[in-house]
Write a structure and sequence with these properties.
The structure holds two protein chains of two kinds.
Chain A lengths: L7 H6 L7 E2 L2 E2 L1 E2 L10 H14 L9 H21 L7 E4 L2 H16 L5 E5 L8 H10 L2 E5 L9 H7 L4 E7 L11 H10 L3 E5 L3 H4 L4 H4 L3 E5 L10 E5 L1 H6 L10 E5 L2 E4 L13 H17 L1 H19 L5 E3 L9 E6 L4 H10 L2 E2 L1 E3 L4 H7 L4 E5 L6 H18 L2
Parallel strand pairs in A: 3-15, 5-6, 5-7, 7-8, 8-9
Antiparallel strand pairs in A: 1-2, 4-10, 9-10, 11-12, 13-14, 14-17, 16-17
Helix pairs in contact in A: 2-11, 3-11, 4-5, 12-15, 13-15
Chain B lengths: L2 H13 L5 H14 L13 E2 L6 E8 L2 E8 L2 H14 L4 H6 L4 H4 L14 H21 L1
Antiparallel strand pairs in B: 1-2, 2-3
Classes of the chains: A alpha/beta, B alpha+beta.
């Protein structure tokens, strides 16, 4: 594979947070699946908003309100392009993927799912794409069906097909597994679900930084993502939904902005997207998300993918040389995530020692307890790479793991 | 040795590590290894202290009006932390335990491990030990 065209050191300079020491060592940030770091352009966007443009949106006639509103809606337009949504009104701003999924469960779920209906999810799911459906099924008397996975951490497609039947109303699956990095065949999953009349929600939280997303090409009914996973601020995300579905769904939260008229005799609701955007949003964060999407587009997703693939390949090659290294999740199609255990040592101990060396990884169940149950383990050590990570950092990780084995190994 | 004397001893030991986190982890590990093996009969659900990633078993018994604690953990670092608590608080009366001011935890340079992080349940362990002391005291008062 040819070396990436990107100048990684130049990219690293855009991320102020990377240039610090932790416990006397240079920070090695390998917890990108938990949250990504932010480039100067995103930080500047938030700062500029509060310094120059802060005003409530969609309500005022004065200049600041105009500027804030325009900037806010510019993000929506950018998000439409970023996801290739057919219409800009199909982009709803939420607090993140978790809220997006809860929104669908509370509105689409409440209205269209009945007793006896079935919802399909997979063993790979994050708790945010399990619990809302469990709550819905408890309330409605519907059944949750689980697509099994194989040892490599891949959905067993034939088993998925067996689960689909005329009672299936919704399929909710992740695009990329946060714990394992498995990239799921969501286009095919959606196609098969549509054949029997079921709708599909895709949890795209992990996909946003790693893959180009084209909701029309996927024919997704709903697609959820979080800004903070893709170089944007926390507390902000979006839900894409097909217009006819969003219009048929009842409101999620009631309040200002989502209404047309309010009288004590009755209230009428606003059109999409505002119907689902009650209250004053985190305006600065929404505006800054545009800067994050611009950052990704300037680099080019194909370049990001190439660099991350190099890191994944190098990481696997180096780590595999450690005798106690056991990867968890070895799908053929994977994003730049390596989940593993060191045989005989608890992940928590390894994580703490790595931190002492300035290396940030995630240990534990990664909010995917059912997936950990499948593997019969309490948790893994997860190193997740981003555009600003380097091979030298992976070397530091390998050295750190060797120290952990020396210290904790029996 | 009194609870406070034990704490002073621990502070002295950790001061020699000079705040080096790696060495501190190594030392905690050694301490944990010295903790007597917890009998299998005590590794039960009722004895588990709730922490996020580490499992900690804590067993309490009383001998001659004093409370004895035995503990274990499935992670080396937490086992070391647990051993410190056992060392400070075991073999003391309920009142001594309930009145104990655990000043050593801020003095041994491990605020990362012994902060509000749920990951090793250190705060939960202290709470559980004090609860045992309270329960024992209440039981003794009823007799």
């Amino acid at each position: 594979m040819t070396e990436t065209l990107l100048d990684i050191q130049k990219i690293r300079e855009e991320f102020p947070i990377l240039h610090q020491e932790v416990n006397g060592n240079p920070l090695v940030y390998f917890d990108n699946a938990a949250t990504s770091q932010k480039p100067k352009s995103v930080i500047k966007a938030i700062n500029d908003y509060y310094t120059q443009d802060n005003a409530n949106i969609h309500r005022g006639v004065h200049t600041l309100a105009e500027r804030a509103t325009n900037a806010f809606e510019a993000t929506r337009k950018k998000a439409q392009q970023f996801l290739n949504s057919g219409e800009v009104e199909e982009i709803i701003f939420t607090k993140g993927t978790t809220e997006s999924i809860n929104l669908v469960a509370s509105t689409f779920g409440r209205k269209f799912i009945k007793e006896g209906d079935e919802i399909i999810i997979s063993t790979l799911e994050h708790h945010s794409n399990i619990v809302p459906w469990q709550l819905l099924c408890e309330e409605k008397g519907c059944t949750l069906k689980i697509i099994p996975i194989n040892e490599a951490g891949e959905i067993i497609f034939e088993k998925y097909l067996e689960l689909l039947n005329e009672n299936t109303k919704l399929v909710a699956v992740n695009h990329i597994s946060n714990s394992l990095g498995t990239i799921n065949p969501v286009k095919e999953i959606i196609a098969k679900a549509h054949e029997i009349g079921a709708k599909v929600l895709i949890d795209g939280a992990q996909a946003a930084p790693h893959l180009p997303i084209d909701v029309q090409d996927l024919d997704a009914d709903f697609y959820a993502l979080s800004a903070h996973k893709v170089y944007g601020p926390t507390g902000m995300g979006l839900l894409y939904g097909k217009r006819e579905l969003l219009e048929a769904m009842p409101p999620y939260q009631g309040g200002g902005e989502m209404i047309k008229d309010v009288h004590f005799s009755g209230t009428t609701f606003n059109d999409i997207p505002y119907k689902f955007e009650a209250g004053t949003p985190n305006i600065g964060e929404v505006i800054a998300f545009k800067a994050a999407m611009d950052f990704v587009d300037e680099l080019g997703k194909e370049n990001i993918i190439q660099h991350e693939q190099e890191l994944l390949d190098y990481g696997m090659e180096q780590l595999s040389q450690i005798e106690q290294f056991k990867p968890i999740g070895t799908a053929q199609n994977k994003a730049s995530v390596i989940s593993f255990i060191l045989e005989g040592i608890h992940p928590y101990d390894v994580g703490q020692l790595l931190d002492a060396k300035g290396i940030a990884v995630r240990t534990g169940h990664h909010c995917t307890q059912p997936l950990m149950d499948f593997y019969g383990i309490e948790g893994t050590i997860r190193a997740s790479f981003s555009i600003y990570n380097t091979k030298e950092e992976i070397d530091a990780l390998v050295d750190g793991l060797k120290s952990a084995i020396k210290l904790f190994g029996k | 040795m009194s609870i406070n004397e034990t704490q002073d001893e621990i502070i002295e030991e950790f001061s020699m590590l000079d705040g080096d986190l790696e060495m501190t982890i190594g030392y905690l590990m050694e301490l944990g290894e010295k903790l007597p093996e917890l009998q299998e009969t005590f590794r039960i659900e009722e004895n588990i202290v709730k922490g996020c990633q580490s499992k900690v078993w804590l067993n309490a018994s009383e001998v001659d009006n004093k409370l004895l604690f035995e503990a274990d953990s499935n992670t080396a670092i937490t086992k070391g932390l647990v051993s410190l608590l056992v060392r400070v608080l075991s073999d003391h009366t309920a009142d001594e335990i309930l009145n104990a001011d655990l000043f050593f935890k801020d003095k041994i340079g491990m605020s990362r491990f012994i902060g509000t992080q749920r990951s090793n349940g250190f705060a939960s362990m202290i709470k559980q030990i004090k609860n045992y002391a309270l329960a024992y005291k209440a039981k003794a008062a009823m007799q």
